[in-house]
């Protein structure tokens, strides 16, 4: 099986336990990645939805098993950061079991400098100080996603591409744009105060790779709508990967992997040559 080999993979906001989680896609993504470190930056499991009417499927269990096999078979370091939807973990942090680290914040020593890693909900005033409103907003967001699903079924019947209603609203509503901008500025200020070269976060479901002054701001997006991840190549370059681009070189086979088990390739020690996206192929060595 062809693999993309990188130094670090950063994922956030997968929201396992919800009907809108693109777990089949993220499982396919991880099966074709090889890395030294996997950073799961918050809201991997959606405890809020599971308490209400969430859905946990075999595909969601499959994701957990893929991560555990990365930990066990390939000596991948796993760093799991608490988000607001999996905030129950706050009672037990920090936790460390060999190559598994579960924390609130993390300092990633990149090739080109130190990066502060945190989910980012600490800078969301509503999430932090008005829990009821945060849950109400979460309910509204999932209601919007339900409308979006029905609308895109109609679009598919007409042969049209997927279109995100919630992302369109967020891009057009001035207050939402302002919220994203303020969030980015506050989190960059924190990284600057910690003498870091950059910051990695999630939370707002808005993928980004840009400079905010002298701070490299990376947001890994989500696996509800954006379907994005951040990878660090062996030469220190960071890249924001979109799943649609990833699929061009690593197509999903018909039927994909069985939802109730791992592929044989997931269990074996991989000795295949490094292959992948153009940017990685040129500069990322075999590991």
Describe the structure.
- This protein has 287 residues and is α/β, with parallel strands linked by helices.
- The chain has a single domain, classed as 4-Layer Sandwich (Purple Acid Phosphatase, chain A, domain 2), CATH 3.60.21.
- Helix content is 37%, strand content 21%.
- The protein is built from ten helices and 14 strands.
- The strands form three sheets. Strands 6-7-5-4-2-13-14 form a seven-stranded mixed sheet. The protein has a five-stranded mixed sheet with strand order 8-9-10-12-11, covered by helices on one side.
- Strand 13 (228-232) and strand 14 (238-242) form a beta hairpin.
- Helix 1 (23-31) packs parallel to helix 3 (58-73).
- The protein is globular.
- Mean pLDDT is 81; it is low at 257-261.
Largest pleated sheet? 7 strands, mixed
* Silhouette: globular
CATH top level is: Alpha Beta
Roughly what percent helix? 25-40%
Low-confidence stretches: 257-261
CATH superfamily placement = Metallo-dependent phosphatases
Kindly report how far apart the N and C termini lie: 15 Å
Label the CATH architecture: 4-Layer Sandwich
Radius of gyration: 18 Å
Strand order of the largest sheet: 6-7-5-4-2-13-14
Key terms:
single chain, 287 residues, alpha/beta, five-stranded mixed beta sheet, 21% strand, globular
Kindly summarize this structure in a few lines.
By secondary structure, the chain is α/β, with parallel strands linked by helices. The chain is 37% helix and 21% strand. The chain has one domain (4-283): Metallo-dependent phosphatases (Purple Acid Phosphatase, chain A, domain 2, 4-Layer Sandwich), CATH 3.60.21.
């Amino acid at each position: 099986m062809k693999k993309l080999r990188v130094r670090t993979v950063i994922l956030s906001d997968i929201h396992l336990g919800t009907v809108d989680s693109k777990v089949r896609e993220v499982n396919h993504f991880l099966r074709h990645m090889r890395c030294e470190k996997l950073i799961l930056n918050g809201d991997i499991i959606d405890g809020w939805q599971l308490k209400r009417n969430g859905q946990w499927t075999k595909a969601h269990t499959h994701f957990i098993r893929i991560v555990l096999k990365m930990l066990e078979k390939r000596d991948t370091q796993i760093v799991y950061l608490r988000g607001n939807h999996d905030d129950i973990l706050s009672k037990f942090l920090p936790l460390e079991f060999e190559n598994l680290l579960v924390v609130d914040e993390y300092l990633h020593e990149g090739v080109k400098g130190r990066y502060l890693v945190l989910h980012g909900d600490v800078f969301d005033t509503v999430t932090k100080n008005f829990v009821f409103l945060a849950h109400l907003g979460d309910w509204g967001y999932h209601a919007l996603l339900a409308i979006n699903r029905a609308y895109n079924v109609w679009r598919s019947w007409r042969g049209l591409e997927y279109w995100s209603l919630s992302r369109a609203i967020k891009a057009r509503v001035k207050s939402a744009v302002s919220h994203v901008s303020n969030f980015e500025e506050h989190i960059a200020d924190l990284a600057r105060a910690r003498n870091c070269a950059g910051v990695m976060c999630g939370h707002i479901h808005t993928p980004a790779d840009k400079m905010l002054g002298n701070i490299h701001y990376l947001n890994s997006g989500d696996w509800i709508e954006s379907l994005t991840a951040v990878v660090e190549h062996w030469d220190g370059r960071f890249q924001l990967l979109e799943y649609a681009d990833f699929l061009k070189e690593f197509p999903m086979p018909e039927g994909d992997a069985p939802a109730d088990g791992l592929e044989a390739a997931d269990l074996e020690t991989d000795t295949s040559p490094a292959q992948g996206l153009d940017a990685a192929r040129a500069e990322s060595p075999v590991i």
